[in-house]
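Thread: quick sanity check before group meeting

JM: Hey all, I'm pulling together slides for Thursday and realized we never actually wrote out the predicted structure for the chain we discussed last week. Dropping the sequence here so it's in one place. If anyone has concerns about the input, flag it before I start.
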Amino acid sequence: MEARFYKALLIRQVEETLLTLFSQGKVNGTVHTCIGQEFVGVALAEAKSLGDFWFSNHRGHGHFLSFTSNIEGLIAEVMGKVTGVSQGVGGSQHLYTENYLSNGIQGGMVPVAAGTALAFKEKANGHIAVVFIGDGTLGEGSIYEAFNLAAKWELPLLVVLENNAYAQSTATQTTLAGSIQQRAEGFGLHYFFADTWNVDQLFTVAQQATETARSGKAVLLEVKTYRLKSHSKGDDNRAIEEIQHYETRDPLTQFLQQHPQETAAALEAILQLIDNAIEQAEAADPCQFQMARPDFPTPSEWTVPSFEDGRFVNLLYETFQDRFDQQAELRMIGEDIEGEYGGAFKVTKDLSLKYPGRLRNTPISESTIIGVCTGLAINGFLPLAEIMFGDFMTLTLDQLLQHASKFCEMYGRRLRVPMIVRTPMGGKRGYGPTHSQSIEKFFLGIPNLDVLALNIRVSPRQVYNRLFNSVANPTLVIENKILYTRPLRTKSINGFTIHYSNERFPTVKISPIATTPEVTIACYGGVLEEVEVALQALFDDHEILCEVLCLSQIYPLNIEPIAKSVRRTQRLLTIEEGTRFAALSSEIAAQLQETGVPVKALTRLGYDGIIPSSFLREMELLPNSQIIVDTIQSMTN
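JM (edit): ok, ran it. Output follows.
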């Protein structure tokens, strides 16, 4: 039996079996089959080379089997067994093997594939990134960001669009405007077209599209096709007559009818392989997934810090320059970071001139910036993204939450995704409602996404050097806007000692000398500057002594330094610039309650509204030293 028809038949029989297993209660969740579309993956597999990287979607069984022929690993995975390709963690939509990843989130893998294509271009290894999307995905904005960037940077990226005319139950013709070809060509992609009813032509065009991508040109291959089964399991509202029409046109069905003796032996062998795979899966242990937990050193050791002199923005620049010298795999991408301009806050100034090709300006495409970094990270690079204003981080959430952070665990093993995202947060610059927010709370609690916040006492050089030396997970670094303009604070505070904890990213503890404090203040980031002013005023003018704990790492949260202080003071004031509801302050309070720390008084300072463009009013509304002093007085009366 011809190899391409054998592979298509194998895919179809595996998927028919998965539907049967679902009906028997041996498979849970959902099953999206590609029955009727099998030849797409088979054609691309025939054109691939060793070292190419494939990215698939929710309807990816056929792609996976075309890429690997691993029946046992696929069936065990869908059955939730530890012997599955993702150890039963990923299931049907999240499959992993070397140079193959799938994810059920529509469109999000295209930026990641673009990042992988960039990695291949940097390495000049001749490989390409292939990413499969459906026609329904054409409504997602992130794919167009990636199209534009891939074409502009001439990346070896092949986007395979399987156009089966339906997005779940909705006919694409009712939602899609314009021409698919014109969309692709409008973004500078080279366009190819084929369909699954002309098998020979499909394989020829797939080869041509692959060769074009391999030459360093971004390509979109549209394949017109039709799925013969429902979107998922049994949900189908299409006309029976329509489905029957395409069943008669289906090339695999026709081949089986035309070659009954030839296909009978092949079918028997395939069914035996499937039966063996099911038997192995049923004998295997179920998924053993356990969530990873952060490992914090107990900060029993506090050291007197050796402060570094220098303006904050200059220290950042020097640190990045040193790292470009030391780490050949470091790449930085972001908006307006090239040339002497050096970003909105001048952190990168002339670095692109000193390290040509290693810093890249991007379009205004925050989602794709992060996706590209993910693709670079999983291919041996250390990407550093700059998001111009922290307010724009909302546009990155899908890539961080549904892709980069999940890649670390959802394939059943720890995948390293070493990437750093840095962004300025905070107000007090008069930038108004959409450029002054502190929205880091929306990124706290995302598994495998570490969140750091720089402050005026810990050198950014120390934080970034430790991060560069050991980063394994996606890490978000909050750089308060006010800090850029400030020199690091090195002077002592009259009546107080200053110590660092022995954590990887130290907590700053400011304690009264030889006296038990009355109130604990927990804070992070740029707020520390106002806290120190208030601390001195409370001591000098009101004889109220406080102990300050300023966190450098705000997620995962190590509650122990704060808990130890509150056990003595039994009063806690938390301070952040953003809204207090469901924020870090709420988490601190909850964890203290859970650990049984007695708290007689608890107050959370923040700002729960939009920020006006009026600079003077902004300064009055955001937490400031006078508000802190007044709050502490009311807590101690």
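AS: nice. DSSP finds 22 helices and 23 strands in the chain. The chain has a mean pLDDT of 95.
JM: adding both to the slides.
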